[in-house]
Structure formats: C-alpha cells, structure tokens
C-alpha cells in the first residue's frame, strides 16, 4: 500500500512542479533522485535482529507424481498442442506477419481466459487448455 501511495504522490508532486511552479522536465527528473537516494540509504541503516527470530525456509515440492490425473492430462494437452503447432505457427508468422500473429495470439489469450470465466460445464476446460497451448506457441 505504501508503495502505491508513494507512486501516486510522486506523480502528483511532479505534476505540480511542472504545471504549478514552472520547473523543467530535467529539474523534475533530477529532484526525483532524492527519494531514491533516501530509500537506498535506509536499506543500509536498518538492521533486523538476528537473535530470537526463527526463520524457517519453506520449500515447495513440485512433483509430477503428486499431481492429480486430470491436471496431468491437461498439462500434456497444453504442451502437446503447443509443440505440434510450433512449426506451422512459425510458417504462418512468416507469411502473415509477426505483428499480426502477435495480435491474434493476444486476442486468443484473452478469449481463452474469458472462456475460463464463463464456461457452462467443466468439460470446456479441455478445449480451452488446447487453445491455450496454441497461444503458448504464439
């Protein structure tokens, strides 16, 4: 929260400096270094106590065996579709243009996520993961 508040205040102060006080853009950028230097300086001044603090490292165990069977199948579909369409997508990109393919990929990506939000039944997940695999390769 403080991070966002600082960002908002920075924009407001810069706006007031430029529009209200007549500072140049260069001056605003130079003055913007001050909070950066203060923040970096505080990093070197603040020390956390090392005594009495019990820090446990949490490890995330990722294991194929621990995944649910349906999730395994969805991941296989996702990567298989992406792998199969890799070469044709490259040829299509050469023919149709990289920007056009990129835009089409983003539209597909948005459509897939919209589909995840509105699917009427769980079996649609299979189709959407396949389409997501198409985007993966885009």
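-> sequence recovered:
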């Amino acid at each position: 929260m403080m991070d966002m508040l600082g960002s908002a205040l920075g924009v407001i102060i810069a706006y007031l400096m430029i529009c209200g006080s007549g500072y140049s853009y260069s001056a605003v950028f130079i003055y913007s270094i001050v909070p950066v230097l203060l923040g970096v300086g505080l990093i070197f001044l603040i020390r956390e106590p090392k005594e009495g603090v019990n820090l446990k490292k949490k490890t995330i165990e990722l294991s194929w065996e621990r995944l649910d069977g349906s999730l395994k199948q969805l991941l296989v579909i996702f990567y298989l579709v992406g792998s199969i369409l890799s070469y044709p997508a490259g040829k299509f990109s050469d023919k149709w243009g990289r920007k056009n393919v990129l835009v089409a990929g983003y539209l597909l990506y948005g459509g897939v996520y919209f589909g995840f939000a509105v699917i009427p039944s769980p079996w649609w997940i299979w189709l959407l993961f396949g389409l997501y695999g198409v985007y993966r390769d885009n």
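The helical segments are 2-20, 25-31, 33-45, 69-84, 86-96, 98-118, 124-137.
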